[in-house]
Amino acid sequence: MTTPPDLDPVIHAQARLRVVAALSALPTGDHMTFPYLQKVLDMTAGNLSVHLGKLEEARYVEITKTHQGRRPVTYVALTSRGRAAFDDYTTAIRALLDGAAGTEQP
């Protein structure tokens, strides 16, 4: 019997998985505004902020605060490290599911 693959605990939390999945759909180097990401994920600003903080601490996302005119804007982007971690995570999930599909009960 093979050992199941390790799942990245930073990404594995449901909310963070949704954040990383949404950002991974963007082309490399592109970003999304905080309010748009919040709307897409249907999350409160506080909840999204907490999870983005964890992802930023792991260097999976980059948060840029700037201004458009006089209005503050926050952009969120998936880093190359975050994209690689998400790719590894999805590979591990597929391996786990493929392994589960191949097990037979006596």
UniProtKB/TrEMBL annotation:
Gene3D superfamilies: Winged helix-like DNA-binding domain superfamily/Winged helix DNA-binding domain. Residues 21-96 form the Winged helix DNA-binding domain. It comes from the Bacteria. It holds the Pfam family HTH_34. InterPro entries: WH-like_DNA-bd_sf, WH_DNA-bd_dom, WH_DNA-bd_sf. This is ArsR family transcriptional regulator. It comes from Jiangella ureilytica.
